[in-house]
Amino acid sequence: MPEPEKRATLADQVSEATTSRLSVYLRCLDQLAEAGVATVASNTLAARFGLNAAQIRKDLAHFGELGVRGVGYDVEKLRRHLREILGLDRTSRVGILGAGNLGLALADYSGFRDGFEVVAIFDTDPAKVGRRTRRGITVRHIYELRETVAREGIHIALIAVPATAAQDVVDLVVASGIKAILNFAPGALRVPPHVKLKSVDFTVSLETLSFFLASDRDGNQP
Amino acid sequence: MPEPEKRATLADQVSEATTSRLSVYLRCLDQLAEAGVATVASNTLAARFGLNAAQIRKDLAHFGELGVRGVGYDVEKLRRHLREILGLDRTSRVGILGAGNLGLALADYSGFRDGFEVVAIFDTDPAKVGRRTRRGITVRHIYELRETVAREGIHIALIAVPATAAQDVVDLVVASGIKAILNFAPGALRVPPHVKLKSVDFTVSLETLSFFLASDRDGNQP
Predict the structure, then answer these.
(1) Nearest residue in chain B measured CA to CA from A117
(2) Domain spans of chain A, in order of start
(3) Of 3.30.930.10, 1.10.10.10, 3.40.50.1820, 3.55.40.20, which CATH number belongs to B12-85?
(4) What is the nearest CA distance from B44 to chain A, expressed in angstroms?
(5) Which of A49, A133, A169, B66 could pair with A107 in a Cys bridge, judged by C-beta atoms 3.0 to 4.6 Å apart?
(6) DSSP letter for each residue of A21-58
(7) A87–B16: do the CB atoms touch at under 8 Å?
(8) pLDDT 10s digits, A126-155
(9) pLDDT-based confidence at residue B219 (cuts at 50, 70, 90)
């Protein structure tokens, strides 16, 4: 019997920057669909949402011929297609590590599109374990992580613990079998190669603003 | 008398992607400084932190000759220089709009580097106004925004209100004279051209993970 070929996954071929843009396109298409728009040209999409038309065509070309020249993209079809590409046609079950202010804010966050469902939240503080979030999820002790991940089929972990605890918590998350982690704690974290870690870094965004203010200040001096 | 020339600011010449990378370099240099490293070559910096050496050299070249060929960058000098470029040599005073879980989490966030100080937090809920955050900042009513911004010299606003209230709150923030806004509410917001708005979008990051999981799943299927 021949060895099964190691297939390259889409994730190997498509950059993270492209994936982020697909999310943005999907959001724009959601708005168009809500406004009753049926087809849209890349130029119109670009002009309306401040995007780059050539970039849109290039990004979508990765995934086959999705538009018709002179007509544009079928909004509904492209939405469905993007949702499939982004894996949003199934619901990803999410667990939150840390039931402090940030963890509770994430548990209630209304901005998660369909495609994500927070199903569990964990902490180590006895005063927090057993409490319920506004949406009715009971805070569990982190000792129950592995068992809960298996039972609830959790795919994604959000790390909302203090920086000093983050690496230990990430190690537990990896050991529980979760392969996708979104980290909100400041500082660098290590994960094995088969696990995908993304960090949401407020400080880098803040420093972009600080740079803007500083150069605005300098630019306005005589 | 001649018209004063309209000087292009640094922010006009340097892309946001570059600014974000400068923040990342600064963080790496902070770690090197802490470890007692005095000089570092771009190749070493790149290898150690998973960055691109050519990109580092190109980014830093925007700001004059900062390294010595064959020796590398003086860690302390480059840190100081990057802090100046990013406007971190002065403290930016930050106001938070919204004293819910997210606003309180941001008020306590330990990841903000020196260079930022949260000095005020606002809400409209009478049950929240007058309370104090863990770090001792009293929640004010948003009616006091304009006066507080002027008195406290607030430069940056963080928007941590529900999506439905976000545009109204941003309009108040702009009217109060603030020119830099970091938004955590989902959805698009409008600001006038002289105001810089950055949004922290958890959903795009989550969708990158969902894409990774989906293509991992498909790639592993026979």
Answers:
(1) B206
(2) 15-85, 92-204
(3) 1.10.10.10
(4) 18
(5) A133
(6) HHHHHHHHHHHHHHTT--EE-HHHHHHHHT--HHHHHH
(7) no
(8) 999 999 998 899 999 999 999 999 999 999
(9) low
